[in-house]
Amino acid sequence: MPIIAAFMVPHPPLIVPQVGRGDEKKVSATIRAYERVADEIAAIKPDTIIISSPHTVMYHDYFHISPGEGAHGSFAAFRAPEVTFDEKYDTGLVGLIERLAADEGIPAGTMGERDPELDHGTMVPLYFIRQKYKEGRIVRIGLSGLPLDTHYQLGRVIRRAVEQCGRRAVCVASGDLSHKLQKYGPYGFAPEGPEYDERLMDVCGRGALDELLYFDERLCDKAAECGHRSFVIMAGALSGVKIKAERLSHEDVTGVGYGICTFYPDSPDDADPYVRLARQTIETYVREGKKIKAPVDLPDEMMNTRAGAFGSIHKKGGLRGCIGTIAPTKDTLADEIISNAISASTRDPRFPAITADELADLEINVDVLTAPEKISSLDELDVKRYGVIVSCGFRRGLLLPDLEGVDTVEEQVAIAMQKGGIRPGEEIELQRFEVIRHK
What was the pLDDT predicted at 272? Predict the structure, then answer.
């Protein structure tokens, strides 16, 4: 089961009434938005709440995942010792994240815990969530000094682990925005502060989460943000699906930016395992130059059958790449899709290789072909139902069925001949095939 939803939230202890003691009213819009997030999580009833926090254990070159059965915490450091937490960890999911990260060469694990107490970056979200929803274990993950790409890769690992475990899970990306928004704020003012907040809220409000990877590190540093890497982990956890995003609030009255957004997968088509596999393949190969292995949780028909398949990629309505195989060349259909997705994204001679900044705009389809059958005339074709293979000696051209702008069998055959370098008037052989189209 994929991650059901994700939430970008701040973590100022001020907004906890026992800490704020009336001052929390200064950020009432943030509190109202937080209460809505809690309501939505309660409605989802997740098995697991995955929280990424800038204030738990953090290393320069390693992601720390909190170990053990659970942890205790309180707001005693903020003059509210009566507000306490006793949380249980999802040890099964933690272990799987650790193993999958190791397989991907990502330095992440449960070693090196310096302080088992819950941090305020974790407790502030839990304060609001636990008002409405008492169930569900947590996974607590720290950030690192590693590049943004590596945080994104960790998010992808988290997604895979959730899917393999079958958990009903939500991600909570805890993090404040710029700390330099007002002269009277605790960190003063810098022009990069409002610039960062405006851009961050625009990107997250549009659900264009991949764009988080392309923030200049110098801008992030000068804005004195604390949550960007937390948000990038969330982006990786939601990669491969279209997102329905909603901006709930943004406030800067304390000199620190507090932003809240919600994110829900909004494309049932991308939940299709064929499309999801192709997208994961393309994203990983384009970003990292690595060919993925077929995930173990794919449907049986993808792992136990062989078939030809085409990967086709469109960007903003226009074709961006399309390559496939008429007959199977790999041991499994999953491996066929992986191979052809790489070819379609980087080796189609009609187009330059796809770049990382294009990934968010791509629509990916997978066509699985039935075995071709020989036919004797055009009368046995149907441009909507059948694809066609036209052969002349060793030359061969193929056209898929039901393509926009191809309305007649004659047009379909003529285009296939052109693709195969077959001239009009030459003697040809015809084959037809059907496809199962995954969009």
Answer: 82
171 forms beta bridges with 6, 50
> Measuring CA to CA, which residue among 253, 275, 248 is closest to residue 263?
248
Distance from CA of residue 125 to its chain's centroid?
22
CA atoms in the 13 A half-sphere facing the CB of 404: 4
Topology adopted by domain 268-369: Glycoprotein, Type 4 Pilin (3.30.700)
Write the CATH number of the domain with boundaries 5-266: 3.40.830.10
**CATH 3.30.1490.150 segments of the chain:** 372-439
pLDDT at 360: 75
How many Cβ atoms sit within 10 Å of the Cβ of residue 131? Answer: 13
* Separation between Cα atoms, residue 80 and residue 96, nearest integer Å: 36
Identity of residue 393: G
Half-sphere exposure for 287 (CA within 13 Å, toward CB) = 24
The length of the chain in residues reads 439
| Residues of the chain predicted below pLDDT 50 | 268-270
Virtual torsion, Cα 34, 39, 43, 45, nearest 10 deg: 60
pLDDT at 359: 84
pLDDT at position 296 is 77
Q: Which of 3.30.565.10, 3.30.300.30, 3.30.1490.150, 1.10.10.10 is the CATH number of 372-439?
A: 3.30.1490.150
- Residue-wise pLDDT for 224-279, tens only, equals 999 999 999 999 999 877 789 999 999 999 999 999 999 998 754 446 889 989 99
Strand order in the sheet with 435-438: 318-324, 309-315, 362-369, 435-438
Q: What would the two tokens of residue 25 be?
A: 């009213």
What is the C-alpha to C-alpha distance for residues 362 and 58, in angstroms, rounded to an integer?
34
Residue 269 confidence (pLDDT):
44
User: Would you state the pLDDT for residue 206?
Assistant: 93
